[in-house]
Amino acid sequence: MFLIDIAKKHGNVLCVTLPTLTIIFYIFWPSAKKASRKGYGMRGSSSKWLPGLQNAGNLCYINSGIQALSASVHLPLWCEKISDSTLVRELNLLVKHLSHPAELPATCSSFLDQLRMRGWRISSEQQDVHEFLVMMFEALVNDVVKPDSLGLPEPSTIAENQGDRVRTIPHDSPLKFPLQGELGISWSCLTCKSTRPLKLESFHTLSLYIPSAQNLPANTRLSLTSVLKRHFKEEILDGVDCDSCSKDGNVRKTSQKKMMSIVAAPQTLLIHLNRTFWSDFGEAAKLHHFVSFPTALNLSEFTYLPEKQKNCVYSLKSAIVHSGNHDFGHYITYKRIGDKWWFTSDEHVRLASLDAVLGSSFYVLIYERTPTTVTSKL
Length: 378
Known about the structure:
The chain is of the alpha+beta class. 21% of the residues lie in helices and 29% in strands. The protein is globular.
């Protein structure tokens, strides 16, 4: 069962809306009351505005995540390939609706009903958008993949996470989830120069950390590229067992170099910036440092074979921003549909400038590869 619980122990930023403001907005925006029960509304042919999402509680974390995904090109294409999942179908209807003009705000109710049917408990308490997206991606994949399909192992041999079977789709499958990528971890002994077989790990999101940020002045300007370089920087670890150096049954510990790289780049890349640090008193707090990010992101230097991946370039599609502190606040989303950027905050939607997008302190970024740069596993 998927349970969405308070995420303090995971070091995540939480959100909560202000009920009073929600009530006032509901009163003064009559059209919000008229949205259809199914949630996909009625297309207003004369409307030039994209629809917002109603907030029936403290659900801005869900609204911001869905709005961010609605800017994706690859996700709807993947959804179209799936014919036997009502969960995927409801998500597809929702993100498509949010990417086209409409007169009425929409609601996630039908999609959330599908999650509840699969054991989810949608809490009315504050939650983290990244945790929601990670669990939602797992639910989508679990709903599509059956134990006997696509050559997957039996459930007993599949790793478990939070009580559910976590499955990945083979990278050469036409049903591969667009946010699914694969990391490779390599080890090499500095004494005998031997190397271990590459260890592969699948991922749906790439979580990054601001190194020693709590010791940096708040006005320190960082860049996404610098954070990525530190994330993929090689490490030298001492006291690691080396089978090649060990003889006569005596295990020898040596210094080894550990390297991580991208073996299979996803079509849609979700980057999560962990903005949590722990004080000397054991209390979680939020990092407010500004981290600049580009509209075009080249990940070639972080791939397993950089010389074969010179065009691993991504285009920025959306950014999720959290305002407030670690324990409460509000999520909004910037997303690009066509050549325009939009600001979304629950039912509120307006055009935004690129400067406003690039000047935001992001929590989650979504990038996508263009069809000419999408390649298979290296």
